[in-house]
UniProtKB/TrEMBL annotation:
<comment type="similarity">
    <text>Belongs to the ABC transporter superfamily.</text>
</comment>
<protein>
    <submittedName>
        <fullName>ATP-binding cassette domain-containing protein</fullName>
    </submittedName>
</protein>
<feature type="compositionally biased region" description="Pro residues">
    <location>
        <begin position="357"/>
        <end position="381"/>
    </location>
</feature>
<dbReference type="InterPro" id="IPR027417">
    <property type="entry name" value="P-loop_NTPase"/>
</dbReference>
<keyword id="KW-0547">Nucleotide-binding</keyword>
<keyword id="KW-0813">Transport</keyword>
<feature type="domain" description="ABC transporter">
    <location>
        <begin position="2"/>
        <end position="227"/>
    </location>
</feature>
<feature type="region of interest" description="Disordered">
    <location>
        <begin position="313"/>
        <end position="389"/>
    </location>
</feature>
<keyword id="KW-0067">ATP-binding</keyword>
<dbReference type="Pfam" id="PF00005">
    <property type="entry name" value="ABC_tran"/>
</dbReference>
<dbReference type="InterPro" id="IPR003593">
    <property type="entry name" value="AAA+_ATPase"/>
</dbReference>
<dbReference type="InterPro" id="IPR003439">
    <property type="entry name" value="ABC_transporter-like_ATP-bd"/>
</dbReference>
<dbReference type="GO" id="GO:0005524">
    <property type="term" value="F:ATP binding"/>
</dbReference>
Length: 389
């Protein structure tokens, strides 16, 4: 098990991680999520003793990493797949690591088979593709048959078959009772792989809960309702009935209705009472990506701006500057898709795992509200280390 208590790391005026506490338990695939610059890589480096915490501590099995006897046999990690001598073959790279840790040479051939690099085992790693480098890094992490494994973006550069293989590998390792800690930006993959999530933003803990609870806490379920497309009055009639009953109705571009605030049986009853035929009535749940975006919308440091391409585009020919006055084309408004925020918490009920009030929800299609800042967090200065991610 990995346990962090009050973990803090400062680089001059920049605080990369602040008062971070969590546990990574065995038998589960724990996803480690957060925007770029949130401090994920710095946290992993502190777990492995590569960076010294400015405050707090982190242990593996009750001990700091540097105090573990023969650490490579207990902890395996993939932080940087490029940390390989390009002049060495894949087998020689793994063999050198094995000899340093007293691991028998036969284990090298075993892990090469696990990651599928037998055919290129004697080729120099400098000619490897990004995906092959990732496989070699995973092989190095598995070399000592450790009980604790850390992976930073393990599917980066892999093809679909490789991504599926990594997903199944993580699940298999966790099923064997190992502690598996995985950092990734691929929300769709985390939704299929992780059992538990630890989410940080600007170096502080935002969430520590199961994937299912995380989605439920940061989104709301909705019902998708569809009426005959040729009967617009039926759709409007149903919308009015649902709104009057206390539901929130949002039209979708394909003509369906997204309804929250009403259970499916109630929607069916209201449609029957209004004499409206339904072509579809199905329950839906927000994705992990939607829930993650809502949770971290106030903790994103790097946001893109609109590229106006000023001075790069050729001037359009005369007559193409716009529609002729009086003949403007009417462009129908298309409702913006999104997801409704969950209802406000009841008095005395904590909206999240930490008991911190959730930021006010944005109206569909409206600007996202800023997350409240922590009164105890120190101000962040300019980044002085590329390790803080």
């Amino acid at each position: 098990m990995i346990e962090a208590v009050g973990l803090t790391k400062r680089y001059g005026a920049k605080t990369a991680v602040y008062n971070l506490s969590f546990q990574v338990r065995p038998g589960l695939v724990t996803g480690f999520l957060g925007p770029n610059g949130a401090g994920k890589s710095t946290t992993m480096r502190m777990i492995l003793g590569l960076d010294q915490p400015s405050g707090g501590h982190v242990t593996i099995g009750g001990r700091p990493f540097k105090q573990l006897p023969n650490a490579p046999r207990q902890v395996g990690a993939l932080l940087d797949a490029k940390a390989v001598h390009g002049g060495r073959s894949a087998r020689n790279h793994l063999l050198s690591l094995a000899q340093l840790s007293g691991i028998p040479a036969r284990r090298v051939d075993e892990v090469l088979g696990v990651v599928g690099l037998q055919e290129v085992a004697k080729k120099r790693s400098k000619g490897f593709s990004l995906g092959m480098g990732q496989r070699l890094g995973i092989a190095a992490a598995l070399l000592g048959d450790p009980q604790v494994l850390l992976f930073d973006e393990p599917v980066n550069g892999l093809d679909p078959e490789g991504i599926l293989w990594v997903r199944n590998l993580m699940k298999q390792l966790a099923a064997e009772g190992r502690t598996v800690f995985v950092s990734s930006h691929l929300m769709s993959e985390m939704a299929l792989t992780a059992d538990h999530l630890i989410v940080i933003g600007r170096g502080q803990l935002l969430s520590d809960m199961s994937v299912r609870d995380f989605i439920s806490a940061n989104s709301a379920d909705f019902a998708r309702v569809r009426t005959p497309q040729t009967e617009a009055e039926q759709r409007e009639k149903l919308s009015a009935a649902l709104t009057e009953a206390g539901g929130q109705v949002m039209p979708e571009p394909d003509g369906a209705l997204r309804v929250t605030g009403l259970p499916l049986p109630r929607i069916s009853d209201l449609a029957h009472e209004a004499d409206v035929r339904l072509w579809e009535l199905s329950p839906h749940q927000a994705s992990l990506e939607e829930a993650y975006m809502r949770m971290t919308q106030g903790a994103v440091d790097y946001r893109s701006t609109a590229d106006q391409k000023a001075g790069l585009m050729q001037q359009p020919p005369m007559g193409a500057m716009g529609p002729v006055p009086g003949h403007e084309q009417q462009i129908p408004e298309v409702p913006q898709q999104g997801f409704y925020a969950p209802p406000p918490p009841q008095p005395g009920q904590h909206p999240d795992a930490q008991g911190t009030p959730a930021p006010p929800a944005a109206a569909p299609g409206g600007p996202a509200p800023a997350a409240p800042s922590s009164p105890t967090a120190p101000p962040a200065g300019p980044t002085t280390s590329e390790d803080a991610r």
